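Appendix B. One record, verbatim.
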Amino acid sequence: MTEPEVEIFWPSSLPPDPATKAQDLLHEAGIQSTCMLRPTRRGVADVVLVLVTTAVLEPFLRTLFQGIAEEAHKGLRMFVDRLLVRPSQNQQTPDEAVIQVSTGGRITFTTGLPDQAFQQAVDLDARDGRWVWDAQRVMWVPV
């Protein structure tokens, strides 16, 4: 597997602090990353898109987030929380974080996901599928 690289596309309509904090977290783990502002689009929810250069998501998630925390799923949660959790009531953040690989596989993270979602995400074979968390079935499902 090649060295992972990450591009964070942040909605320009939102304050950039969460994106820069997430980028700092990646840099601390030795992961090359870039943060770019996305133009505002009317009628669409603010979503942060995280693109990765590796072809398969599972090894990427394991490698990347193992460097951030002792267990990969905890590192993944820290990263997503930096992007989505509002530090104060007045600060806006995106509604979703979408992690996508070059083959098209995508996992959509939202706020309030349980630890089990992050544990499963690290082991998920996303390939070219699009995945969302199903709270009733307590698992990632393709859409």
